[in-house]
User: Which sequence fits this backbone?
């Protein structure tokens, strides 16, 4: 297999220059003409440089976004009186850069328990279908709840009891950390889609969290962006485009527009493509033509399409042209010039494939702690299907995530760059820089079909991980305008979405990334797994104990061991044992679904040519509570925090590749990191490694071709100060027997127990992992020589990370949609 993909990728391509006025005629029979081939799936959208483009002009009269900036008076906006005048309107106040909207007791919604308010403005009878979304820039550090937009003032039978408006958009949970956030709310909520007539009013509505006496929201600006304006930067382009909340890597053109490609059709040739439009009042005619050498063009598909709610997925049979070099043309036309047309993941493929090139399934069980999996000797049979898979593959006994939570760890292991190298967290975001290639981009460039099915927004668009993904779904259910399914079943729904994608894009090879959230919380699992380890009586007991703890003023989920528990008469080991049971049930459910996925792969004949990697982005603490400590019968009176604690960052890592990776292997050495996965996977399938990476390939070890050099595992996690640009956080190392955690620029949150004898913070914590595997007590005072050694080592590592980060251009945060925010709240990332 060595070099096979490289030979396919490095075949020369012709650059066909074109003119809108004088398209160049091509001689398909000439020896010097290079033709696009489909030995691997051919992504037409990635070959604009080899296309002749005719037409597709951006209209000159596009409407511009309309923006109200509240650093100056905006007299068009006035307070809303909610529920027919039962509440007092908010009393706005100006600040230097915003309109401050305070909620007080007079703004309490009757019988609801929360405070509510809003502002609204009149509009000049706009057409709703011309607009894409509303962006609201706002900030709050108070216990605010959600924000929404209201649509068209009416006093007759309002559809929502909160406001006298025809409808409300989806509610977007507010981020309450005091940072300025952008909330992007699309104009396609159910009530808005059913509206006929002009758009006459726009409101911004917001509520507090329950049982609050006061809260304040600052609005910095409100923008309304036209649909067509989003694609005005180029007449023809490529981007990830959402139609009906289904993303495709897609071409966009402005009708009338025509793209001609020179393609050699493979055996069993077919073109798979999705049609997409922005409007339903101007249908777009999509047309595909094929012209063989010396022959006349034949229209093989022509269809008028106007459903802006979903992709019109089509398959075009090209078998009669197999083995021939043809001109393949995609063309869009419409009565209104400039109308946008989307060609979703236009892919030419054949019935044969290079057998040595495997499919790759990268399966992340979000929040999976290795120590709670029977794969690693846990006393409950939580992962019987994964256990069986281990007999066919290789297991790493000591694998670590590179950070503590999804938003930090996933961008890192998708790029093999540490969190600090990627720039740290900026206003809560961790967006992969534009000039850093993700795992999806590596595989898409190699010709793989790419799919991402994630139920955690931090593993999707919020981190910039949708780039070069042919099919991208962010959500735990098949999307409908009626909402999502039970998020405890995320694996089931994501698998269904995967198989739906495979039906519409059946070519191989493919790379797919799953990230499930079945175990990311404390709710009972779906039957029959709910009740497997926690009885109904125990559920009732746990709820009773929770009530007692609330009455005793428990201040946080990790306060076990405090006097509150004694006052409430609750045993914290027993209490958290219930959570452990919930977690185990959910793990068993996800394991079951993974087993079903593998069974179907075997039935379809794909399993024998598939590389499967099962891993996690972090351990149990970020998914639920710190149960690895909480269930201990006794705890020392003081303990510290380190990211490499087993309940925080020890994760599963399993590779299965029939016929290539020997089954039944278990590696206790070396200690490895999730940041090793990108180079390992690329190396296994013989793709070029990144020019810059911090992980190492484990492929020689997996393939029995040699060992890999043992080296310390680095973890880091940082927040960037928005004013100074300084990174603040922790960098840590696992080095054989020892683990060390160094605080940088004040470090991340550490409990008072990590302070020294005289009450001063200790910059470096040191743990003896052989004798203190749960990292309960730092031994820095007992080993000053090791403190000095690891302080110097980690400081040098951090400085090297900063230097490496200078190679990459930071990306801007992605505006949050209501769906993303709701998922984040459900997963516990937003409180």
Assistant:
């Amino acid at each position: 297999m060595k070099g096979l993909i490289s030979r396919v990728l490095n075949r020369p391509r012709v650059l066909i220059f074109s003119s809108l006025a004088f398209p160049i005629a091509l001689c398909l029979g000439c020896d010097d003409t290079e033709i696009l081939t489909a030995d691997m799936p051919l992504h037409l959208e990635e070959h604009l440089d080899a296309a002749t483009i005719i037409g597709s002009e951006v209209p000159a009269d596009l409407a511009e976004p309309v923006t109200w900036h509240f650093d100056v008076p905006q007299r068009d906006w006035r307070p809303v009186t909610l529920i027919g005048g039962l509440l007092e309107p908010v009393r706005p106040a100006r600040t230097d850069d915003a309109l401050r909207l305070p909620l007080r007791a007079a703004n309490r919604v009757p019988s609801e328990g929360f405070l509510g308010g809003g502002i609204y403005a009149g509009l000049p009878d706009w057409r709703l279908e011309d607009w894409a979304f509303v962006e609201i820039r706002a900030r709050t550090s108070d216990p605010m709840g959600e924000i929404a937009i209201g649509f068209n003032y009416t006093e007759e039978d309002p559809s929502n009891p909160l406001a006298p408006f025809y409808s409300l958009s989806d509610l977007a949970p507010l981020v309450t950390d005091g940072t300025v956030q952008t909330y992007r709310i699309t104009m396609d909520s159910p009530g808005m889609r059913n509206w006929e007539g002009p758009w006459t009013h726009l409101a911004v509505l917001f509520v507090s969290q329950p049982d609050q006496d006061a809260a304040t929201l600052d609005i910095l600006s409100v923008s309304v962006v036209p649909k067509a304006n989003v694609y005005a930067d180029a007449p023809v382009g490529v981007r990830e485009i959402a139609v009906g909340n289904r993303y495709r890597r897609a071409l966009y053109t402005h009708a009338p527009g025509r793209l001609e490609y020179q393609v050699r059709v493979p055996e069993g040739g077919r073109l798979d493509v999705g049609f997409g439009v922005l409007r339903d009042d101007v249908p777009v005619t999509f047309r595909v033509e094929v012209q063989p050498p010396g022959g006349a063009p034949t229209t093989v598909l022509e269809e008028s399409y106007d459903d802006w709610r979903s992709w019109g997925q089509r398959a075009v049979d090209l078998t009669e042209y197999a083995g021939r070099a043809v001109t393949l043309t995609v063309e869009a036309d419409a009565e209104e010039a400039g109308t946008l047309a989307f060609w979703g993941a236009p892919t030419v493929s054949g019935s044969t494939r290079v057998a040595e090139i495997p499919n790759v399934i990268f399966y992340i069980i979000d929040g999976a702690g290795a120590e709670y999996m029977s794969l690693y000797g846990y006393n409950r049979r939580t992962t019987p299907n994964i256990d069986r898979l281990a007999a066919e593959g290789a297991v790493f006994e000591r694998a670590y995530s590179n950070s503590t939570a999804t938003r930090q760890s996933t961008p890192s292991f998708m790029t093999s760059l540490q969190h600090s190298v990627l720039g740290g967290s900026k206003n809560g975001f961790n967006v992969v820089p534009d000039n850093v290639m993700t795992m999806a981009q590596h595989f898409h460039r190699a010709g793989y079909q790419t799919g991402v099915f994630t139920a955690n927004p931090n593993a999707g668009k919020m981190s910039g991980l949708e780039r070069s993904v042919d099919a991208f779904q962010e959500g735990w259910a098949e999307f409908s305008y009626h909402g999502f399914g039970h998020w405890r079943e995320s694996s089931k729904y994501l698998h269904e979405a995967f198989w739906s994608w495979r039906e519409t894009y059946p070519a191989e090879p493919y790379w797919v990334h799953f990230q499930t959230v079945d175990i990311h919380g404390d709710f009972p699992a779906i039957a029959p797994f709910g009740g497997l380890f926690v009885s109904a009586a125990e559920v009732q007991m746990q709820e009773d104990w929770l009530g007692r703890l609330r009455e005793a003023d428990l201040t946080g989920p990790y306060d076990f061991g405090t006097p509150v528990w004694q006052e409430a008469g609750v045993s914290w080991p027993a209490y958290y044992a219930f959570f452990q049971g919930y977690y185990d049930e959910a793990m068993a459910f996800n394991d079951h679904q993974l087993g079903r996925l593998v069974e179907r792969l075997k039935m379809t004949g794909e399993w024998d040519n598939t590389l499967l990697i099962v891993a996690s982005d972090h351990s149990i603490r970020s998914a639920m509570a710190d149960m690895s400590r909480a269930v201990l019968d006794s705890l020392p009176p003081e303990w510290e925090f380190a990211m490499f604690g087993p309940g925080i960052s020890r994760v599963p890592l399993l590779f299965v590749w029939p016929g290539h990776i020997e089954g039944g292997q278990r590696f206790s050495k070396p200690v490895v990191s999730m940041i090793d996965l990108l180079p390992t996977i690329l190396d296994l399938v013989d793709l070029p490694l990144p020019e810059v990476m911090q992980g190492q390939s484990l492929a020689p070890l997996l393939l029995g071709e040699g060992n890999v050099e043992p080296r310390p595992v680095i973890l880091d996690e940082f927040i960037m100060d928005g004013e100074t640009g300084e990174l603040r956080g922790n960098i840590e190392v696992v080095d054989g027997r020892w683990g060390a955690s160094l605080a940088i620029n004040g470090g991340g949150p550490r409990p008072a127990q990590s302070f020294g004898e005289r009450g001063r913070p200790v910059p470096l914590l040191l743990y003896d992992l052989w004798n203190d595997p749960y990292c309960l007590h730092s031994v820095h005072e007992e080993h000053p020589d090791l403190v000095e050694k690891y302080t110097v080592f980690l400081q040098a590592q951090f400085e090297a990370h900063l230097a490496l980060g200078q190679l990459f251009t930071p990306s801007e945060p992605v505006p949050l949609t209501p769906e993303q925010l709701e998922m984040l709240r459900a997963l516990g990332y937003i409180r």
The first strand starts at residue 42 and ends at 43. The first helix runs from residue 4 to 9.
